[in-house]
Design brief:
This protein has 2 domains: 6-177, Thermophilic metalloprotease (M29) (Thermophilic metalloprotease-like); 185-399, no CATH class. It is built from 13 helices and 17 strands. It has helices at 6-22, 43-55, 68-76, 80-83, 90-95, 117-125, 128-139, 153-159, 163-173, 181-201, 286-292, 322-325, 356-362, and strands at residues 33-38, 59-64, 97-104, 144-149, 206-211, 214-218, 238-241, 249-254, 258-260, 263-273, 276-284, 302-308, 334-340, 370-375, 379-384, 390-395, 398-399. The N and C termini lie far apart (45 Å).
Length: 401
């Protein structure tokens, strides 16, 4: 029995193709190449997206991604040569690629739990060269991309739900039961863009985030803008910013669990001084977390700060995957930070101008890691404005326009 009906799958495919188009700076031309990457469990959705891409007169190239078993073998049962093997021709393929659709459907969330994290690190680094080709095309406006989730038993079990309920909640989060899902996403996109424009107009010099377990300050930094729905993730209800990592100070607390590389980390407490997480604690998974923040020079620093309004988000409970959980909009909404790399989308200028030297100058963090850690407590966010004025911009899950 399918997790999603044919009509829902068709709606999902329409949303993804629209998101793909939205994420690209220039329109697609007939016959351009789109990579369709998918986990095997997501084949029904991959087929629907394939058909939608054909209808759009594009060239979909389907690519099944490794299963959880294959990943465990690759990272945990390989020689160094196998671990660092780079797929021949991948850079050339990426240079010819106009779009990428990725459908995640993990069949085992714990498959990497016994694998040495340093092996996974080493294996992922071997993929960076080809990934940088895509990033350069994206910054030049020549690449569109979107990522989504397909419901699986592994995700449902980790979230504490039966699979049918999980599938229904995921579909609702993606607005797939609406009469016109694409039209609804256009409305959400405009609503978030209006809030981002308002936030940018305040010319915020510093943000102060307070909750029961959190007292954090950070500066947006020069040449920054708040970013709403870009099409790169579905769903996408958050407003985020790449702050000046050097200004982050105080205590951040993530009460929502996070699952990464087969390990669950929960109740994370990070203490920042001079932009560096100098004290790292967790009720569960602390040793793993401590290892991750040592993975490279930017892993102890903040690459993203985000807020989600509970009036906009349709993610209403823990879904056991960051793609949904970073958009959590329950009773008190959420804020989250990401340890690691910053997004160029937050740069208030032409993307091609954000060179590595310019990133360093402006305090855009650089790291191959990007790990979102979510706080769902009731909180208040206050902005320090030019001239010394203060204004509350977010409280108890809602922006205070």
């Amino acid at each position: 029995m399918p997790h999603l009906t044919p009509d829902t799958l068709a709606n999902y495919a329409d949303v993804l193709v629209w998101a793909l188009r939205t994420s690209r700076a220039v329109p697609f031309k007939n016959g351009e190449l789109v990579l369709l990457r998918f986990d095997m469990a997501a084949t029904p959705l991959a087929e629907a997206v394939y058909a939608a891409l054909m209808d759009a007169h594009l060239h979909p190239l389907p690519q099944a991604m490794p299963t959880s078993f294959m990943q465990a073998q690759h990272f945990g049962n390989s020689s160094f040569g196998q671990l660092t093997f780079a797929q021949p021709g991948l850079c050339d393929l990426h240079r010819a690629t106009a779009g990428v659709v990725t459908i995640l459907a993990p069949d085992d969330l714990g498959s990497l739990s016994e694998v040495d994290p340093s092996s996974i690190d080493e294996g992922e680094k071997s993929e960076l060269r080809a990934a940088r080709v895509l990033d350069r095309r994206r910054r030049a406006g020549l690449l569109g991309s979107t990522v989504c989730l397909y419901p699986t038993s592994a995700l449902a079990k980790a979230s504490g739900m039966p699979l049918p309920e999980y599938a229904e909640r995921l579909a609702r989060a993606c607005l797939l039961f609406m009469p016109d899902p694409v039209g609804q996403w256009k409305r959400v996109r405009k609503e978030l863009a209006d809030i981002a424009k308002w936030l940018d107009s305040l010319k915020i010099e510093r943000l102060h985030i307070e909750s029961e377990n959190m007292d954090l300050t950070l500066c947006p930094g020069d040449k920054r803008r708040f970013v709403g729905f870009t099409g790169r993730n579905v769903p996408g209800f958050e407003l985020y910013l790449a702050p000046d990592w050097r200004t982050v100070s105080g205590v951040y607390y993530a009460d929502q669990p996070s699952i990464r590389w087969g390990r669950q980390v929960s109740k994370v407490r990070l203490e920042f001084h001079g932009g560096i997480a100098v004290n790292v604690q967790a009720a569960q998974g602390e040793a793993f977390l401590a290892g991750r923040v040592e993975s490279d020079g930017g892993a102890r620093r903040v690459g993203e700060f985000s807020l989600t309004d509970n009036r906009i988000s349709r993610v209403k409970r823990f879904m056991a995957h960051t793609l949904l959980d970073e958009n959590y909009g329950g009773e008190a909404g959420n804020c989250h930070i990401a340890l690691g790399g910053a997004s160029a989308a937050s740069f208030a200028g032409p993307p091609q101008e954000l060179t590595a030297e310019r990133e360093e100058e402006l305090g855009f963090n650089s790291s191959h890691m990007h790990w979102d850690l979510v706080n769902t407590e009731k909180k208040r966010v206050t902005a320090l404005l030019p001239g010394g004025g203060r204004r509350a911009i977010y409280e108890d899950g809602q922006f205070l326009l």
